[in-house]
Design goal:
This protein has five domains: 5-129, no CATH class; 138-220, Immunoglobulins (Immunoglobulin-like, Sandwich), CATH 2.60.40.10; 226-326, Immunoglobulin-like (Sandwich), CATH 2.60.40; 328-408, Ubiquitin-like (UB roll); 416-471, no CATH class. Helix content is 0%, strand content 50%. Strands 11, 14, 15, 17, 18 and 19 form a six-stranded mixed β-sheet that branches. It has a five-stranded mixed β-sheet with strand order 21-28-27-24-25, with no helix packed on it. It starts with a strand and ends with a strand.
């Protein structure tokens, strides 16, 4: 198209498509008519309008992601209007596929994953259009039977999949529970009359509904057991690389002292606001050991949380926890001369720098082999602990400073250019020679600045000196 129409053509060898004699729809027998056209303004009958076709692609990916009805369709986009339409090249029918694209799409491609990609020139970015199958809910984890003492609580949990958003409604004995609209429901302060109650959840979205199995709540006059963590003790601290013991006890009003089979232990490792499994559920023991690792999270805001759960013969459980924290020390990295860059755990930082770490955790410290400070260049000599330029350390028990010593590389004077001289031809420039005091094995090369102006550069492989500019009148 040009000023009035845009067109999509089926290009065949030797055909005349009328440019620039005609644009848009044409009945002129001299020209091959377009497969499809749309105007710059005044579109009718649901057809698009725009200013320029700037991208197009057939949808025939090796891995289809869109519904099968899109296979073989031609997707095209317009620079000004921010839409994508599909064209059926057989029926020549067009259908709007997407609108409100980011500013000024200029290319359209089908990716190997079956997604559609376009470049938004106005934002200098690539965007992806993918298809998510819309499905009704499915129950993936049924609620389990629960036991609670009179006045206690019981929690039911459901797992479900399906197109978002999923809606939940818990029911007791077939009646909706007010406010119980999440994937988890806790029945609190349960009375004896709730014994035998059935709890289920109805999950729904815009495409269907699924109802879970019913779970039974048993309300008992049995009292829950008492659990105690005897070791580690309250206020206990640890270091990395050591083995520690845990021990607990449990009693029950009905059962008396509980056996080891009633015990379950777990330890989670916490860092900042998240946690990771450290010791998985360990059943059937009243005591055991765990070892704190030396290769682990290097931050200092870490701790361990120990869980002990004891369960009586009636199925009632009690869980208690204990948090233990690490002993810490400061690591200071500095250089001589001061102000050079060091690395700690692979990250470069300006020195001097101090980091707090857990005693016993392995860290990596290092420096670059050569560094510049002001106009001078320095090369690494040694670390104060005798380690290699980059090496591991074990966080010591006390605050410690590590110093990286450097030596200054001897300065070199500007090389004196002996050749070429004025009036040399370009072909003679390879004969450039130079001298530089304070270095050996100095090589030279010529660098063209502009017509007839060159400079000579000399380097020993790490430092470059620049000569004055020579004026050449070569041919």
């Amino acid at each position: 198209g040009n000023s009035t129409w845009e067109e999509i053509d089926d290009v065949k060898a030797g055909r005349n498509y009328g440019w620039p004699t005609t644009e848009g729809p044409s009945n002129d027998p001299r020209f091959e008519p377009p497969l499809y056209t749309y105007p710059h303004s005044g579109a009718t009958n649901g057809n698009p309008e725009g200013c320029a076709v700037t991208g197009g692609a057939f949808y025939n990916p090796a891995v289809g992601q869109f519904p099968a009805s899109y296979n073989g369709k031609y997707f095209f986009t317009d620079y000004c209007s921010g839409w994508i339409y599909t064209l059926d090249t057989q029926s020549r029918a067009v259908t709007r596929f997407a609108s409100d694209l980011e500013q000024f799409p200029v290319d359209l491609k089908v990716g190997p994953d079956g997604s559609l990609y376009y470049i938004a020139h106005g934002f200098g970015a690539i965007y992806r259009i993918s298809y998510t199958l819309q499905t009704a809910p499915q129950i993936t984890a049924q609620p389990q039977n629960q036991t609670a003492p009179i006045g206690g609580s019981a929690t039911f949990t459901i797992g479900a999949t399906g197109s978002a958003p999923l809606r939940f409604q818990w029911q007791r004995n077939g009646e909706n529970i007010s406010g119980a609209t999440s994937s988890t429901y806790t029945a609190s302060n349960v009375p004896a009359t709730y014994n035998g109650s059935l709890y289920r959840v109805v999950v729904s979205n815009g495409f269907g509904t699924a109802t879970s199995n019913a779970a039974t709540l048993t309300v008992t006059s049995n009292k829950p057991p008492t659990a105690t963590i005897d070791a580690p003790s309250l206020g206990f601290t640890y270091i990395a690389g050591q083995t520690y013991s845990f021990q607990g006890s449990g009693t029950d009003a009905e059962d008396g002292t509980l056996p080891a089979s009633a015990f379950t232990w777990r330890i989670d490792a916490h860092h900042d606001e998240h946690n990771h499994p450290f010791l998985p559920d360990t059943k059937g023991v009243k005591s055991g050991t765990f070892t704190t690792p030396t290769r682990t999270e290097t931050a200092s805001n870490v701790w361990l949380r120990i869980y002990l759960t004891v369960t009586d013969s009636a199925g009632l459980s009690t869980t208690v926890t204990r948090e233990i924290f690490p002993r810490k020390a400061n690591l200071t990295l500095q250089t001589n001369p001061a102000g050079l860059i060091v690395t700690i755990d692979g990250s470069p930082v300006d020195s001097p720098v101090t980091r707090t770490g857990v005693i016993g955790v392995i860290r990596e410290i290092g420096v670059d082999a050569t560094q510049e400070l002001g106009a001078d260049t320095y090369e690494f000599v040694s670390w104060s602990d005798g380690g290699a330029r980059v090496h591991e350390i074990t966080t010591p028990a006390t605050n410690t400073t590590y110093t990286a010593t450097f030596r200054r590389v001897a300065g070199l004077s500007t090389p004196v250019v002996q050749a070429p001289q004025p009036e040399f031809s370009y072909a003679s420039l390879a004969a450039a020679r130079g001298t530089a005091s304070g270095a050996t094995n100095v090589g030279g090369r010529l660098q063209r600045l502009s017509d007839n102006f060159y400079m000579v550069r000399a380097t020993d492989g790490s430092i470059t000196w620049q000569s004055a500019v020579n004026t050449l009148s070569g041919t």
